[in-house]
Amino acid sequence: MTTRTIGDITIECVEGDIVDQPDVDAIVNAANAQLRPGGGVAGAIHRAAGPALAEECAPLAPIRPGAAVITGGHDLPNPHVIHCLGPVYGRDEPADELLAACYRNALARAEETALESVAFPSISTGAFGFPVEAAAGIAIDAVVGAAPTLNSLRRIRFVLHGKGDHATYARALEHRLPA
Ligand code: AR6
Questions:
Q1: Fold exhibited by the domain 2-176
Q2: Tens of pLDDT along 106-122?
Q3: pTM here?
Q4: Ligand 1 first shell, C-beta below 6 A
Q5: How far apart are the two ends of the chain, measured CA to CA in Å?
Q6: Atom of ligand 1 at shortest distance to CA of 36?
């Protein structure tokens, strides 16, 4: 695990599975516009949460790239899920700004609900094709940039699938907040 603190907020990068983070108040979904179960992160979250999650999501859809909405966690160990629609790389522009907006809007939903902890996957870097190196820099910049404005959040975790993505996010965090 790679960890940095900024003010009283801890930012962590861990290798793991987004549906296996029982100690956080919300996990973030790399959703589709219709907020339906899909592949990747969305598939894993809907499988673990059970069908009631899709039922709660239906009236909130569709959402636009960069947007974030919050629901309950249903059968997940987490009380909440925050669903973000990342940009499809090469189609939704400006891609960098839309990706940053996902992270900022997810943090805003968490703060509105007075959450203390949230875990993000690497939004847009799977089916949506965003290059992970660039996405990691944008994600870390967005979270570190928002940190001074946060009131309730104390812990923000990035959960990366695989050693390569973990190393990329950890490097971006170390670069943005040198020890
Ligand atoms: N835990 C953590 N990371 C994961 C997990 C997991 N369980 N599963 C995959 N990843 P993606 P996107 C990584 O495709 O690019 C869906 O079909 C994965 O290796 O889930 O935003 C939706 O329905 C990759 O690095 O999200 C949408 O249509 C990253 O998470 C679309 O894909 C994101 O991969 C969203 O595409």
A1: Leucine Aminopeptidase, subunit E; domain 1 (3.40.220)
A2: 999 999 999 999 999 99
A3: 0.98
A4: 17-19, 30, 32, 38-42, 44, 86, 121-128, 159, 161, 165
A5: 14
A6: 23
- What are the tens digits of pLDDT across the range 110-163? 999 999 999 999 999 999 999 999 999 999 999 999 999 999 999 999 999 999
**DSSP assignments along 102-127, one per residue:** HHHHHHHHHHHTT-SEEEE--TTSST
> Would you state the structure tokens that stand for residue 156, as one six-digit string?
């923000």
Q: Where are the domains of the chain?
A: 2-176
Amino acid letter, residue 38: G
Report strand pairing: 80-84 vs 26-30: parallel
Q: How far is the CA of 179 from the centre of ligand 1 (A)?
A: 30
**Pocket mutation for ligand 1, best pick of 20, 36, 41 (most atoms within 8 Å of C-beta):** 41
